[in-house]
C-alpha cells in the first residue's frame, strides 16, 4: 500500500451500491477566507500563465462526507457544489492556513477516475507539464467530478456519465469497450492534494485495445505488468499515490478471490 493516502471506503462496488445525497452548503465562508482565496488564486493564475499552463475555474462536486458501515457494502456520498478555484487554494496550495483558520472553507473536490487493465497489464497516463499537480507522474484516468444535472438520479449514474466523458477526452475510450461495467475499487484521499478520489476498475474487453493518449493532459501512456507495477515500475516515471494504492487494492482483492 502507501502511506500517502487514506482509505475512506472499500470495494469492489457496483454503481448501484452507491447512493448520492446532494446537500446545501452548511457554512458560509468568512470574509477573510474569501479574500485569501481570491488573492491566492490571482497569484496562481499569473504563475500558470508565466509557465504556459492552463488554469481555470469551474464548478465541482465537493465531498462533505462518505458513509460505508461495512467494507464492500453500500456507500453513501454526501456532496455539495463548489468551485475549482476554492479547492485549488484551500486544499492544494494553502491547506495549513485554511485548516487552522477557516476549516469551513476547505473544498475537498471529489476526484473520479478509472484504473484501466488489459489482461495482465495496467495502463496509466503520464501527466504532462500543463497540469497543476503531479507533473511527470503516471496516474489513473479521470478528473474532478462536476455537479450533476438538476434531474440526475441519486445514485452512481451521473458519476459514471462523468467518467465516460473523461475517458473519451483523455484516451478516446468508451465504457462500452470494457469487459464489464466499472467497479469501484475504493474512495481514497491523497495526502498531498487533500483530495478524495473515487477510483474505479475497468478491464478492456478482448479486441478493444484501441486507445490513444490526449496530449493536453498526458505526455504518453505507460503500460506495466500488473503483478510487478508496484515493485519495478519505471524509475524515471513514478506512480502517484492514488495509482499505487489502487493497484495494490486491486491486486489484494484478486488474490483474496483466488483463495476463496
Q: Would you tell me the structural class of the helices and strands?
A: alpha+beta
Q: Main β-sheet: number of strands, strand sense, barrel status?
A: 8 strands, mixed
For the termini, the CA-CA separation is: 22 Å
Order of helices and strands: EEHEEHHEEEEHEEEH
What gross morphology would you assign? globular
Q: What is the overall number of helices?
A: 5
Approximate strand percentage: 25-35%
Write the layout of secondary structure elements.
Layout: E1 5-13, E2 18-22, H1 31-50, E3 59-67, E4 75-83, H2 84-93, H3 95-101, E5 111-118, E6 121-127, E7 138-139, E8 141-144, H4 157-171, E9 183-190, E10 195-203, E11 218-225, H5 241-259
Parallel strand pairs: 2-4, 5-10
Antiparallel strand pairs: 1-9, 3-4, 5-6, 5-8, 6-7, 6-11, 9-10
Helix pairs in contact: 1-2, 2-3
Task: Walk me through what this model shows.
The chain is of the alpha+beta class and 260 residues long. It has helices at 31-50, 84-93, 95-101, 157-171, 241-259, and strands at residues 5-13, 18-22, 59-67, 75-83, 111-118, 121-127, 138-139, 141-144, 183-190, 195-203, 218-225. It has a single domain, classed as Nucleoside Triphosphate Pyrophosphohydrolase, CATH 3.90.79. The strands form two sheets. Strands 1, 5, 6, 7, 8, 9, 10 and 11 form an eight-stranded mixed sheet that branches. Strand 5 and strand 6 (121-127) form a beta hairpin. Helix 1 (31-50) crosses helix 2 (84-93) and helix 2 (84-93) packs across helix 3 (95-101). The two termini are 22 Å apart. The relative contact order is 0.20.
Amino acid at each position: 500500500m502507501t502511506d500517502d493516502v487514506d482509505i475512506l471506503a472499500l470495494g469492489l462496488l457496483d454503481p448501484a451500491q452507491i447512493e448520492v445525497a446532494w446537500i446545501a452548503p452548511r457554512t458560509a465562508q468568512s470574509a477573510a477566507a474569501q479574500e485569501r482565496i481570491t488573492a491566492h488564486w490571482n497569484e496562481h493564475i499569473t504563475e500558470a500563465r508565466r509557465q504556459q499552463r492552463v488554469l481555470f475555474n469551474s464548478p465541482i462536486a465537493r465531498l462533505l462526507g462518505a458513509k460505508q458501515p461495512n467494507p464492500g457494502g453500500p456507500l453513501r456520498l454526501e456532496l455539495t457544489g463548489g468551485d475549482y478555484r476554492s479547492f485549488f487554494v484551500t486544499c492544494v496550495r494553502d491547506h495549513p492556513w485554511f485548516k487552522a483558520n477557516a476549516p469551513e472553507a476547505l473544498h475537498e473536490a471529489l476526484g473520479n477516475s478509472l484504473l484501466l487493465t488489459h489482461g495482465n497489464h495496467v495502463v496509466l497516463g503520464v501527466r504532462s507539464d500543463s497540469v497543476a499537480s503531479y507533473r511527470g507522474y503516471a496516474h489513473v484516468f479521470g478528473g474532478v467530478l462536476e455537479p450533476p444535472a438538476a434531474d440526475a438520479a441519486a445514485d452512481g449514474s451521473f458519476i459514471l456519465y462523468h467518467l465516460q466523458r473523461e475517458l473519451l477526452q483523455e484516451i478516446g475510450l468508451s465504457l462500452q469497450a470494457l469487459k464489464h461495467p466499472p467497479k469501484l475499487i475504493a474512495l481514497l484521499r491523497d495526502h498531498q492534494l487533500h483530495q478524495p478520489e473515487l477510483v474505479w476498475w475497468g478491464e478492456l474487453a478482448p479486441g478493444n485495445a484501441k486507445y490513444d493518449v490526449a496530449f493536453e493532459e498526458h505526455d504518453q501512456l505507460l503500460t506495466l505488468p500488473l503483478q510487478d507495477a508496484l515493485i519495478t515500475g519505471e524509475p524515471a516515471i513514478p506512480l502517484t499515490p492514488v495509482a499505487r494504492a489502487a493497484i495494490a487494492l486491486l491486486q489484494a482483492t484478486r488474490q483474496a478471490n483466488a483463495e476463496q
